[in-house]
TrEMBL record:
A Pfam family matched in the record: SASA
Domain of life: Eukaryota
Claim: Translocase is one of the keywords in the record: no
Protein name from the UniProt record: Acetylxylan esterase
CBM10 domain span: 282-320, 322-361
Originating species: Anaeromyces robustus
Gene3D superfamilies linked: Cellulose docking domain, dockering, SGNH hydrolase
GO MF terms, alphabetically ordered: hydrolase activity
Length: 367
């Protein structure tokens, strides 16, 4: 019986290792109407994508994909009823191009053209009168686009880490000054339902086609900008100089590519992915020509106006004995060898040891 129990424990441990979310898989939720759904013509060059960029099928059967399964992010990323190339495509492609090779990007797009923002309001979407032209897409999303977005978020959390939310919407709520507050409420509901922190999961909202480029609803952009005034973790993505199709609603394929890149550049900036910034060791002793002690609990050998000093391998070292992650229930990382940054949030930089998160301290060396 002891052997059986032991084997069961081992199998459970192995199972937990293999099913643990990958901190290097950074996933983004995307929602909105037709411009997020994508209306850009898909060219041959758009059909080849780095396998580090993955999409989850948010509907069943589009391009032979099975609902809830991950695939290479070949457009359309939303659905096959109307979806073509949209900003999410080159958002992900730009991220994988600029991030370290070990990081993968995932996207989950739930978008329905010609819909009011009400379709994503948690408690009101069921009362929305569905226009005939979007009924098929609405049905494909299980007759509840908000619930489908949350469902996709939970599936994402099984395999990776949600790092942000993308939105493109506004044309169907032209002139409605309450749109920012309604979007903020949707954002708050998503965060609550997925147990996310706004500081770690920003929302990026794109402008509609500008009036200068023939946009019929360019007057909505000042209202969209008001979202950032009531939401500190909401950011606006400009559509300046982006061409539209003749309909005055949708961007051209090239414009979608650029818009996606703008979403990505903003996300890179928000998450401080800049490698020169995140690999800087902030040990206070460096400015004095010394290293920080590898053992952050080392005995203090001397103290002066600069700080506490210890001795390692016969050399003075600065003591930084604040293991900031312990207060959050996690140990600090071992200082033997280098540490890979797997995640950055408002608390600090994180790595993984023994299948558990650990906080990176100034004494650590970054790989």
């Amino acid at each position: 019986m002891k052997i059986v129990t032991y084997l069961a424990t081992i199998l459970l441990a192995i199972s937990q290792v293999f099913t643990a979310p990958d901190p290097n898989f950074h996933i983004y939720l995307a929602f909105g109407q037709s411009n997020m759904e994508g209306r850009g013509k898909i060219y041959q060059e758009d059909k080849t994508v780095d396998s580090r960029f993955q999409m989850i099928a948010t509907v069943d059967g589009c391009k032979g994909r099975k609902f809830g399964e991950w695939n290479d992010a070949i457009p359309p990323l939303s659905n096959c009823n109307m979806g073509q190339l949209g900003p999410a495509d080159y958002f992900g492609r730009t991220l994988v191009k600029k991030l370290p090779h070990e990081i993968k990007i995932g996207i989950a797009v739930v978008a329905i053209g010609d819909c009011d923002i009400q379709l994503f309001e948690k408690t009101k979407n069921r009362n929305y009168r569905i226009p005939n032209e979007i009924k098929n897409t609405y049905e494909a999303y299980g007759r509840n686009s908000y619930s489908r977005l949350i469902e996709m978020g939970k599936k994402a959390q099984e395999v990776g880490v949600i790092r942000g939310i993308l939105l493109h919407h506004g044309e169907n709520n032209i002139g409605q000054t309450d749109w920012p507050n309604r979007v903020k409420a949707i954002y708050d509901n998503i965060l609550n339902d997925l147990d996310l922190n706004s500081d770690d999961v920003p929302l990026l909202a794109g402008e509609v086609v500008s009036s200068e480029k023939g946009g019929k609803y360019g007057e909505m952009n000042p209202i969209i900008h008001n979202l950032a005034k009531i939401c500190s973790t909401c950011h606006i993505i400009s559509s300046q100089n982006l061409d539209s199709e003749d309909d005055g609603f949708h961007f051209t394929t090239n414009a979608y590519r650029t818009l996606g890149e703008r979403y990505a550049e903003e996300m890179l900036k928000i998450h401080n992915y800049n490698q020169s910034a995140i690999t800087t060791n902030n040990c206070w002793a460096h400015r004095l020509g010394f290293q920080c002690c590898k053992n952050y609990k080392i005995e203090v050998a001397y103290s002066d106006s600069d700080g506490d000093w210890g001795i390692e391998n016969g050399e003075w070292c600065g003591i930084d004995n604040t293991c900031w992650s312990e207060t959050l229930g996690y140990p600090c990382c071992n200082t033997n060898g280098c540490q890979t940054i797997y995640f950055i949030d408002s608390n600090g930089m994180w790595s993984v040891e023994n299948d558990n998160w650990c906080g990176i301290t100034p004494a650590n060396t970054i790989c």
